[in-house]
């Protein structure tokens, strides 16, 4: 089968690790060939972001210090792998771009994307050499050269789906047909006019699943520094287990609650085309990893328990809210206008109160915005904020349609003397989330894992 393998920044942190990843490509490529997608070397995207910001507002000395660090790291890897000339050429291009930003004293979103693209372009130049050292014949593409076309929302570009799949299938598929190993930069793409864009968070994973969909791959493998998804954070629950198989829907839910999983957007192409995604550990390749597929794995009622500690709770209350159409919409609109994301919503049947969980660093902004919008017009009587809270989430398709799950869940919490402040559940029954005090969060996770995952018949 055709195989697409994406390697993250920690997997490509230096020349030795690149050689390790190249061997994984060589060992796993079947008769139909393999394509590799690469991220920037570990920490390089952050360095480039800081470089771009500094180029617009500071003098050349600080900028040159950052450039020297990037140059030293990539030239050192190139010295081990070969390909020094290509790395030198790319670094010279980056230097010219930096000079242009400094000359105008302004960093646009378009210019930032151009700077950030060098992380993946440099990594691809190095990984091309690593593949060649393993006896493979790489055909290297930037995302745009591979056919990945996006709109012009720089920094968070959205692919033109059908056009991108067609072009990537044609161009990358042709290289595979010639017996070559395709190598594509993750994260970066281009507009229809050829201007470089970036795909935002999870962009390299997104590139990999788009490429898998375009090629009709048998599987997409995401290589990182962990064995796969766990049933809980092992730091909180030493008994946490590796999840060998989960559904796409479960993976999306887990990602929403902070699991070290793929960004939900990156799963869409694979889910739509029914292409399994396997998460594997570069440093423990014998581990089966976690398989994400369309089927629902049998097993425990809950697949995983999550804790979100960076959270705050807003309570909006008042008799004027009862039976008054549009109050909830006004609350949501007020927060949306200020770019505040709502993580969880709970409303009483009486309509006298709405509880909203937001990120901890947005709590005060949310409170101030809602007070201004609602108290002045008496649409609500009180807006209260509580920063000493955490969100606990239970995820698993095994809960769907099973009576008694809620009783077991809240019984386990109650036996530990933990008070539940607010509760939310979607109609899909894939997850239940609730708010507890921040201090009680870790104990709540352990109680639920013991009851719903570890217990016999859990």
From TrEMBL:
The keyword ATP-binding belongs to this UniProt entry's keyword annotation: yes
Enzyme class, first EC level, given as a word: transferase
Alphabetical UniProt keywords: Amino-acid biosynthesis, ATP-binding, Kinase, Nucleotide-binding, Transferase
Catalytic reaction equation(s): L-aspartate + ATP = 4-phospho-L-aspartate + ADP
Molecular function (Gene Ontology), one example: aspartate kinase activity
Family: Belongs to the aspartokinase family.
The protein's name in its UniProt record: Aspartokinase
Annotated source species: Eiseniibacteriota bacterium
